[in-house]
Amino acid sequence: MAAENFPLLKRDRRTIDSRASALRLAEKEKYPDFGVTFTYHNRGGLRDYWTIGATARIPLYYSRKQRRVVEEAAAEDAASRERYSSDMALLFFKLKDAYLRATTSARLTRLYGEVITPQETLTIEATTAGYETGKIDFLSVVDSSIKLLNDELTYYEHLTKYLKALAELEPLVGVELTW
Hints:
With 179 residues, this protein is mainly alpha-helical. The protein has one domain (2-173): Outer membrane efflux proteins (OEP). It contains 4 helices and 2 strands. It has helices at 2-5, 7-28, 62-133, 138-173, and strands spanning 33-41, 49-57. Helix 2 (7-28) runs antiparallel to helix 3. The longest helix has 72 residues, at 62-133.
Protein backbone atom coordinates (compact mmCIF):
# COMPACT_ATOMS: atom_id res chain seq x y z
CA MET A 1 0.00 0.00 0.00
CA ALA A 2 2.83 2.39 0.86
CA ALA A 3 4.70 1.64 -2.37
CA GLU A 4 1.60 2.62 -4.37
CA ASN A 5 0.51 5.67 -2.38
CA PHE A 6 3.74 7.33 -1.27
CA PRO A 7 3.99 10.61 -3.24
CA LEU A 8 7.77 10.52 -3.58
CA LEU A 9 7.61 7.11 -5.26
CA LYS A 10 4.82 8.27 -7.57
CA ARG A 11 7.06 11.13 -8.65
CA ASP A 12 9.97 8.74 -9.14
CA ARG A 13 7.86 6.41 -11.30
CA ARG A 14 6.80 9.32 -13.52
CA THR A 15 10.43 10.40 -13.80
CA ILE A 16 11.48 6.87 -14.77
CA ASP A 17 8.80 6.77 -17.46
CA SER A 18 9.87 10.13 -18.90
CA ARG A 19 13.58 9.20 -18.84
CA ALA A 20 12.84 5.88 -20.55
CA SER A 21 10.88 7.70 -23.26
CA ALA A 22 13.72 10.18 -23.70
CA LEU A 23 16.17 7.28 -24.06
CA ARG A 24 14.01 5.56 -26.70
CA LEU A 25 13.71 8.83 -28.58
CA ALA A 26 17.47 9.45 -28.42
CA GLU A 27 18.14 5.93 -29.71
CA LYS A 28 15.90 6.57 -32.70
CA GLU A 29 18.11 9.48 -33.73
CA LYS A 30 20.71 7.08 -35.13
CA TYR A 31 18.32 5.90 -37.86
CA PRO A 32 17.70 7.83 -41.05
CA ASP A 33 14.51 9.83 -41.21
CA PHE A 34 12.60 9.77 -44.50
CA GLY A 35 9.66 11.90 -45.49
CA VAL A 36 7.39 12.62 -48.40
CA THR A 37 5.82 15.98 -49.18
CA PHE A 38 2.92 16.85 -51.39
CA THR A 39 1.98 20.49 -51.99
CA TYR A 40 -0.85 22.05 -53.95
CA HIS A 41 -0.22 25.56 -55.34
CA ASN A 42 -3.15 27.79 -56.17
CA ARG A 43 -1.83 30.67 -58.26
CA GLY A 44 -5.03 32.60 -58.76
CA GLY A 45 -5.52 33.31 -62.51
CA LEU A 46 -2.64 31.06 -63.56
CA ARG A 47 -2.71 27.35 -63.87
CA ASP A 48 -2.57 25.40 -60.56
CA TYR A 49 0.18 22.90 -60.00
CA TRP A 50 1.33 20.25 -57.51
CA THR A 51 4.70 19.56 -56.08
CA ILE A 52 5.85 16.17 -54.84
CA GLY A 53 9.08 15.80 -52.94
CA ALA A 54 11.03 13.51 -50.69
CA THR A 55 13.28 14.27 -47.73
CA ALA A 56 15.97 12.19 -46.14
CA ARG A 57 17.78 13.05 -42.93
CA ILE A 58 20.83 10.87 -42.51
CA PRO A 59 22.73 11.03 -39.22
CA LEU A 60 26.25 11.35 -40.61
CA TYR A 61 27.71 12.54 -37.29
CA TYR A 62 26.15 9.91 -35.06
CA SER A 63 29.47 8.80 -33.59
CA ARG A 64 30.35 12.37 -32.57
CA LYS A 65 27.01 13.94 -31.65
CA GLN A 66 24.00 11.68 -31.31
CA ARG A 67 25.87 8.93 -29.47
CA ARG A 68 26.58 11.37 -26.63
CA VAL A 69 22.90 12.22 -26.42
CA VAL A 70 22.04 8.52 -26.13
CA GLU A 71 24.68 8.04 -23.43
CA GLU A 72 23.33 11.03 -21.49
CA ALA A 73 19.75 9.75 -21.74
CA ALA A 74 20.86 6.29 -20.61
CA ALA A 75 22.69 7.79 -17.63
CA GLU A 76 19.66 9.87 -16.64
CA ASP A 77 17.45 6.78 -16.97
CA ALA A 78 19.78 4.77 -14.72
CA ALA A 79 19.97 7.63 -12.20
CA SER A 80 16.18 7.88 -12.00
CA ARG A 81 15.94 4.11 -11.38
CA GLU A 82 18.56 4.34 -8.63
CA ARG A 83 16.72 7.27 -7.05
CA TYR A 84 13.55 5.18 -7.06
CA SER A 85 15.23 2.25 -5.33
CA SER A 86 16.84 4.60 -2.80
CA ASP A 87 13.51 6.25 -2.02
CA MET A 88 11.89 2.81 -1.74
CA ALA A 89 14.53 1.70 0.79
CA LEU A 90 14.05 4.93 2.76
CA LEU A 91 10.29 4.44 2.74
CA PHE A 92 10.56 0.88 4.05
CA PHE A 93 12.98 1.98 6.76
CA LYS A 94 10.58 4.71 7.90
CA LEU A 95 7.67 2.27 7.74
CA LYS A 96 9.44 -0.34 9.80
CA ASP A 97 10.61 2.21 12.36
CA ALA A 98 7.16 3.76 12.82
CA TYR A 99 5.47 0.36 12.82
CA LEU A 100 7.77 -0.99 15.53
CA ARG A 101 7.21 2.12 17.66
CA ALA A 102 3.45 1.84 17.15
CA THR A 103 3.27 -1.85 18.05
CA THR A 104 5.52 -1.44 21.08
CA SER A 105 3.50 1.51 22.35
CA ALA A 106 0.24 -0.34 21.68
CA ARG A 107 1.42 -3.32 23.73
CA LEU A 108 2.57 -1.12 26.58
CA THR A 109 -0.67 0.87 26.47
CA ARG A 110 -2.68 -2.34 26.62
CA LEU A 111 -0.50 -3.64 29.47
CA TYR A 112 -0.92 -0.49 31.55
CA GLY A 113 -4.60 -0.11 30.69
CA GLU A 114 -5.68 -3.71 31.24
CA VAL A 115 -3.24 -5.07 33.82
CA ILE A 116 -1.11 -2.62 35.79
CA THR A 117 -3.61 0.21 36.41
CA PRO A 118 -6.42 -2.16 37.55
CA GLN A 119 -3.94 -3.88 39.89
CA GLU A 120 -2.87 -0.53 41.31
CA THR A 121 -6.53 0.39 41.79
CA LEU A 122 -7.04 -2.81 43.77
CA THR A 123 -3.87 -2.08 45.75
CA ILE A 124 -5.07 1.40 46.68
CA GLU A 125 -8.43 -0.03 47.75
CA ALA A 126 -6.68 -2.63 49.90
CA THR A 127 -4.32 -0.10 51.52
CA THR A 128 -7.24 2.28 52.18
CA ALA A 129 -9.17 -0.54 53.84
CA GLY A 130 -6.04 -1.47 55.83
CA TYR A 131 -5.59 2.14 56.92
CA GLU A 132 -9.23 2.36 58.01
CA THR A 133 -8.78 -0.74 60.19
CA GLY A 134 -5.51 0.58 61.57
CA LYS A 135 -3.28 -2.17 60.16
CA ILE A 136 -1.46 0.05 57.62
CA ASP A 137 -0.01 3.53 58.09
CA PHE A 138 -1.07 6.57 56.04
CA LEU A 139 2.25 6.69 54.18
CA SER A 140 1.41 3.37 52.49
CA VAL A 141 -1.90 4.82 51.25
CA VAL A 142 -0.12 7.90 49.88
CA ASP A 143 2.55 5.71 48.28
CA SER A 144 -0.11 3.55 46.58
CA SER A 145 -1.92 6.67 45.33
CA ILE A 146 1.28 8.09 43.88
CA LYS A 147 2.07 4.78 42.21
CA LEU A 148 -1.42 4.68 40.67
CA LEU A 149 -1.07 8.24 39.36
CA ASN A 150 2.39 7.46 37.92
CA ASP A 151 1.05 4.35 36.19
CA GLU A 152 -1.87 6.31 34.73
CA LEU A 153 0.57 8.95 33.51
CA THR A 154 2.74 6.24 31.93
CA TYR A 155 -0.38 4.79 30.28
CA TYR A 156 -1.17 8.13 28.65
CA GLU A 157 2.45 8.64 27.62
CA HIS A 158 2.44 5.30 25.78
CA LEU A 159 -0.95 6.09 24.26
CA THR A 160 0.47 9.40 22.99
CA LYS A 161 3.52 7.63 21.53
CA TYR A 162 1.21 5.15 19.81
CA LEU A 163 -0.90 7.89 18.26
CA LYS A 164 2.21 9.77 17.15
CA ALA A 165 3.54 6.63 15.47
CA LEU A 166 0.20 6.19 13.69
CA ALA A 167 0.36 9.81 12.57
CA GLU A 168 3.83 9.17 11.13
CA LEU A 169 2.58 6.08 9.31
CA GLU A 170 -0.39 7.80 7.65
CA PRO A 171 1.52 9.89 5.08
CA LEU A 172 3.72 6.90 4.27
CA VAL A 173 0.85 4.53 3.48
CA GLY A 174 -1.49 7.21 2.11
CA VAL A 175 -4.57 6.23 4.13
CA GLU A 176 -6.00 7.33 7.46
CA LEU A 177 -5.19 4.92 10.26
CA THR A 178 -7.45 4.52 13.27
CA TRP A 179 -6.69 3.08 16.63
